[in-house]
Structure formats: structure tokens, C-alpha cells
Model the fold of this input.
Amino acid sequence: MTAPRLSRRDLMKLAAAGVVGSSLSHWLEPLAEAAAAHPHRRRACILLWMNGGATQMETFDCKPGHKNGGLIKEITTSVPGIKISEFLPRIAKQMHHMAIIRSMATKEGDHTRAAYNLRTGYLPQGSIHYPALGSVVSKELGQPDAALPNFVSIAPATFLSPAAYSSGFLGPEFAPLMIGNVGYGFGAPGAYADALKVQDLLPPKEIGDSQVEARLDMVRDLQAGFSGAHPGLSAASHRSAYERAVRLMRTDARKAFNIDEEKDELRTAYGKNLFGQGCLLARRLVERGVPFVEVTLSNVPGAEVGWDTHDRNFDRVKALCGVLDPAWSTLMTDLRERGLLQTTTVVWAGEFGRTPVINPQRGRDHFPNAWSTVLAGGGIKGGVVYGKTSPGGDSVAENAVNVPNFIATICKAMGLDHTKQNMSNVGRPIRLADAGSKPITEVLA
Amino acid sequence: MKWSRFLLALTLFGASAGLLDAAAPAGTRRAAGGEKPEPAGLDDVDRVAAKIDEIIALAYEREKVKPVPLCDDATYLRRVSLDVTGRIGVVSDVRNFLADLSPRKRAEAVDRLLDSPGYVNHFSNIWMGLLLPEAQTDLNRRFLMPPMHNWLRKQFTTNVAYDKMVREIISLPMATRAGDDMRLAFYRFQQQATPMTFYLAKQGKPEELAASTARLFLGVRLECAQCHDHPFGKWKREEFWSQASFFAGINGGQGDFFFGPLTETADRREVNIPNTDRVAQARFLDGKTPRWKFKVTARATLADWITAKDNPFFARAMVNRMWAHFFGMGIVEPVDDIVDDNPASHPELLAFLSREFVNHDFDIKFLIRAITRSRTYQLSSVVDPTGGEKGGPAPLAPPGPSDIRLLTRMPVRGMTADQLYESLRIAGGIRDNTTFQQRVFAFGTPRQLFVDRFGEQEKKTEYQTSIPHALTMMNNQLITDATHPDRGQVLGAVVSSSFMTTPRKIDTLFLAALGRMPRADEAERMARYVERGGAASDQKKALADVFWALLNSTEFRFNH
Done:
């Protein structure tokens, strides 16, 4: 038997309360903003997604002195005893807020399947359409009537694995609003200012405000007529989505996307590039109550293939870290200064790591056997290294972490019950994190 | 330009059919004539349609519910156009249909639609999604679409019997040695018409092929039994791998390159069950052991069994799938999970339609004619305001799943991304001359944008609209152009037609977007708005506002 979904109940409740579809007009009316300091503030997650699979050997699990280690040097961090790559000097100063997992051991070495695996927590399997983690979290923590979408994906590179960005069996209500989809994720990086605009957010310029109002009035009349004759989830969802979209179009909600409001100093600190400004946007969205935001770091000048560094690994990773280091470290300080770090879990991950052995093109290839991820901020115990790889980095030496346990840990850090179930499209209940998973208590606050 | 605009205006205003179709891309124009169904066939369609209604009515009686009245002609044409051709009708078609006095005009409309290229397009798209789901989500596998597309178009153009279609897929010969036809140049391969890419998409893996064929053609989900005995069904792990064994002879594709040749060892019919020392032999799902023939592949033997007239799974799975296509949910739902503990809403109906489908030699068009001619399919989707249906569902409290499955009225169904894009194109007179190949390999086309943004949803009868959906419909360039008094083809023709009065213009916009005339209150309100020039004090812009609102209405977005 299919259990009714939360979304449906919520929608019906809203519809019954007359909230949905009540006021499409007055679209210029200001919108009350949820304050960041609200006492009952819900938790949020920012996923920094490293498209292509980031090397562990030049980031968080360096092997200086070993032939696999290459030329990399380690530097000390804010936590005695923990050393990371010389490419991440500013991140090193944030280490007391961070937990490094050096023992990721996953099963997929193909971009499409691995991205799906990491991003949904499940292996791709013919008939079940698993939702991305962002969709899962937005269902648990999102406000069904919020003007801002509950899941925003910034600069996603969906092309190789669109299903990994889908809300799957949870349905489009929990699908991400994508901003600046870079498609392939390869090639020259575009101008960030245009890329970070929400597509189709505004009516065409030639349509005046009063005309927009008149149009929306007519739509509302037509919607009321149709849903009166055809009551049900479909009609209610249509009205609710228009209501929310119109509120998003209004000045105040839209402001969330206006990074021009930020001081130039801060914008420069994040880095004036797609990922840096994307991280800044993520902070603005989380501040306004969006429970899940992800920012993808893919192509940058000098690394046009994102983290898929099959050749010239060291040069390319240096270029990528040149973008990652200021953006992520500024995000950490910015969140902390605004009192958001305690409620915001920051996750750093890609689809897999890279081979310890350096190939003849001075690159590293796909490697799911032993690699690193990082958790930080809300719910996470800082200054921790969990797990260990062998001296050459070719296997996990202790505390292997699989994908379900990784997902369960993120859920736990956000205060979610990872064993909670949602009904899937095949009529089988599916847990937030796969059956048998356990959160890693050592990295939880 | 002016001249074509005038011609378009004539079409919109008058009843001369087919002119607007000239704006549609080559190849979508209606075929003249086409094969007419046999008169004897017609009677048989009536008989089957009547029996459908009889079985549905038995359930009404048992549950003490009553159906709503039949829908009006405009609703029927829109509904059946979307279901059969994947798009709404053009204004002239709607006008012709409404003016037609023939008592059999609904049946005749279905015949016309089945003969049109729209039918071939729509059903080819649907089966592409079923046979190559991998191509929707994986860049590498998109290249597998054109040969399948070409092959599917052939099947639906000539109305190949369903059993024949499936038999060709399952028994398709592989290259006998590396270097044969599959090593054709990439370009040549793209021109071929072959379902070979079904195998290539699954890299020739026996377990994936077994799971897909069982789900698609038998309506059973074996894949859960791949790793362990099926927890909810009767399938055991052994049975899954017995099914996979029919494909064991295929020697997998080479590496990541999906165009590598697949070869086959004809007499290999067993696989090792992973992580065990057991071997599964090819055996049919009904437990019978196949009788092997000399030099006949295991797959050919399987194809004979699957498509046999007395196979209890085969016809039933297709009939259920087709029912779901026309009602938004199967007699068994989900459609590919026909097991004992997932009861059918109308078991007699499933059995009856399966029998008829077999007796009519698996004729897909016959099945479509019978379903669309039933009173059940012709029911209105409007809730009976007098509460004639069971207790009368209170406003805003939708009937539960059991009520909706009784079909006292037609469920409201969300349009697929394809249906939405095609219908917008028809309503707005938007040209799209891209070929299928261009669509596969060129990204960033308006069609691709709609497919990406709107995706597919499992439950057509509980269709969700998201914020990005609404933003796209309100503000996307495609809508902006279609609702621009100069750039929009249909709107432009309407606003520049000096011979039309304002109410006539509004009628035409309703026909274009919603396939119906406005109701009296709508007509009056909209005419008043336009006459006073609307918000921008400009009648043309006011008409654009009306058209924009119609395209953004719930009614436009749904098949009802």
C-alpha cells in the first residue's frame, strides 16, 4: 500500500487553509524575510561538489616522500598533528571546524554511476529512481510554502549524470532550482555574473508591471475555475507552484540572488569566479532559510576538465585549489560571523578519488577504493581525521567508510533520522540512507 | 510574410483544414487517406468497447457509485489528440470537428489521428523511452537513439503487430563474429533502422537484458531477485538467473565504447549465479524447460515463448500498459509489477482485453480504437457538483486511490514534457524544423530545454508542478515569442485580422490554446478587458495578455 506522501498532505492542508492560490495578485507586495537568527532556525547543508572526482593525494591525504606522492608538500593546520596539501593554506586555518574522512571506499569508478551513487546514496538500479541527497533533505527540512525553493543547485554540471541531480521518486516539488547549469562541465568557464542569474525569473522587459498583474489575475481566475471542477493534487500543485514562483519574482525574495548587494571586499575574498560567487550565493540562500544548497566546482582556467585530471594533475589541481581555497575558507568564516556555522553542515565531496599511481601523462585516473571527503560546520566535530590509507595510498588501512555510512553521517549531523523511509516509485519504502548504514560517531559533534 | 499571415488568419477564422499544418515541420503534415479499417473491424471495435463499459459498470454497481456524464466534443478531441498524437489539435481541426454532424465523428477522429504522422511520432517517442531509458540519463548512450528511432518509426508507420515487434527485438541476430555489421562506420550506424541499440545500451549484459525484457514485455519485475529472493513477489533468485541465461550467449560490448560488436555463442544457455558455485540453466518463467532446436539461439527460443498467444504474461502486460496510457494508471498499477499481491482494479477487464488483443493478432491500433470508443474513456473529468459520485467528494478533498481507480470520471493527467512542448508549438504556431538527429546531438534547443526542465513523472494522475516549471511557463523566451503580437504566429494572425471582432478573436485564442470555445462568463470578462485595451491601453497587447493567461492556465497544462 502506498502511504500518502508528506508533500501531498501539506499541499492539501495548505489548500484547505486557503493559503494556496489565495493571492497571486499584489505581486509587488513586500515579503517578510526569515531572519537568520531565528531561535527555531532549522539546519541546512551546503554541498561543495567536486565534479570529475577530486584527487585525495594533493588535497587531504598527501603522501610526501612516497613515490606515489609526487611533488606535493604538506603544511600544518590550525589543529596540531593534522597536515594537508600546500595548495590549501586558508582551509588549513579552518581545520578546527572540519573532519577529514581519509578512508572512503566506494564501488563505482565510472563518472555517471559514481556521481549517482555519491549524490543519492544508492547504486543506480534500473527501476527505482532514487532522489539526490538535496531532494531528500529539502523534503525533511524545507517549508512547503516558502518563496525560495528548498533545494538550489549552483553551477551544476549535470550532463554526464542528469539522474544524479533529479528528485527521483520524491517528485518535482523537491527538485533543485538549477542556477547556471554548465552542462558538460568542461570547456572554458563562462562569465559568472550572467551564469548566476535564475533563468526565466523575470517577465520580458516590454511587459509592464500592471500588465503582469492583469495577466496573473486572469491566470488565477482560470485556475480557480479549473480546480473547482477538478479538485485534486494536480490542480492544487499547479496553483501552489505559481503562487511560489510569483513570490520569488517579487523584489524581496528575488534579492536573495542579488549578490551585488554584498561588499566588494567580501566578494573579492570569495573569489570573483563562478565557484567563489556561487559559495557566496549559497550563504545568502542558507541565511534565508533554504535547507540545501550545492555549489559545483568544475572547470576553471588551467583545469578545463574539472577534477578529472587524467593528465597534468599537479598543475590542474593547483589551479582548482586556487579557486577552492579562498572560496571555501571565506564561506566558513562568513557563516561563522553570521552565526550560521553551527546550523550549517558543509560537505566537500566528488564522485571518487584518483589513482595513487601517477600515470605517464602525469595524471591520476579514477579511483574509488581509497579516497577522501570532508565534513565541516553544523553537527560535525572539528579537528578530526577519521580513517587512514596505506603508506602508498592504494588501499584503506583502517575504518573504511562506504557511501551509505557517509550519507547517514550527513543526515545525523543535520539532526535527521537516516533510517526514516520514503515510499519509492516501485512501491517499496526506501530509507534516507541505505539499510544497515551507521553514522560515524567519531566525526559527529 | 504578410500573405502567409493572411492565410493563417483565414485558417484560424474559417474552417479550411490543413493550412496551419503547413507551418508544422515537414513530415508532420497529415497523410492523405491512409488505410481505412475494415467495416467488420468497426463492429468488433464497438463490441469490445461495449464490453469494457459493461465490466466497468459492474464495479460501479458493486461499489454503489455512479459515473459522471460523457465529456463534450471539444474535450474529447483534445483528450484523444493528446493521447494518440501527443499534441493538441490546430484551430481548424477543432472547428471542423465541432461543426461535424456525423454521429460517428469521435470514432472517425480517432481513425484520422491514427493515420497521421503524429501517431507515429508520439508512440515512437514513448517506446524510445521504454526501450532506451539509459539514453535519457547518460550522454554516451544518446548516440544509440537514432537507429532505434528509425526502427520504431517503421513499426508504427506500418502498424506492425505487437508480437512481431517484440519477437524482432528479442531474437535479433547478433554479428556472428567481430567485424561484422556492428563495426560499420559510426555514420552508417546512425542511418540504420535496428533495435540493436537495446542490447548495446545494456552492454549485452545478460542480467540487464533479462530484467528489462521481463519488465517491458511480461510486466514483472525480476530485478529485485537478482541479489536475493524477491521479498514481495514469488520470484526466486534462481529464476532471475534462469531468465538471464537466455542471454548468456551474448559476448559483451568492448569497454566503454557502445558501438563495439556484440557477438553470440548460440548454444551457451547457462550462467553462474554470482558469488555462488551454482549454475542457472535457461528456463521459462512458468517453470517449463525449453526445447532447444539446432542452430536456433536461446533468445529466439525465448522470443517464441514470450510472444506466444497462450503466454499468460505477454498480452496482459501490453494491454495494461496501453490502459495506463489512456487513463493515467494501469488496471494493475505500477504497470510493470503484475504480481498476485498487487491486485488489479478490474481483473475481468484485464483478462478480457488480453484475450481480444490476442484474437486481433496483437493489433495495437485495434486496441486504441476499442479503448477510445468506450464510454469509460469518454467520461467527463469534471467532478459531479451534485455529489452523484459516491457521497460527492468534498471540494479540495480529492478522491482516494480506490475511488479514482473506479473510473467514475476521467482522471486529470499531467502532460509529458513532449506533449507540453508539442502542444505549445501548435498553440503558438512555433516552427521547429529540427530533425531527430539534430535533437539528439544538438543541445540547448527549446525542445531539449523543455524535456530537461519538465522531465517525466511517475504518477500522471498526481502531477506536481514546481517553481521552475511555473517560471518557465511564465517567462521563457518560447512563451514570450508565442505571446508577442508581432512575433507570435497564431497570436499575430489573430490580432492583425481586421475582419474579426474582438469576441471572435477571443474565441480563436481559446480554440488555439484550450481547444474549446470560451464559456459565456469568460467570453464576457475577456472581451471587456480587451475592448478597454487592457493594462497597457493597447488592444493588441490585451489580446496577448489573454493568450498568455490561457497558456499558463491549469487547463492548458493538463489532459483532462
Observations:
- The longest strand of chain A covers residues 44-50.
- The domain at 39-202+264-443 of chain A is CATH 3.40.720.10 (Alkaline Phosphatase, subunit A).
- Chain A has a mean pLDDT of 87.
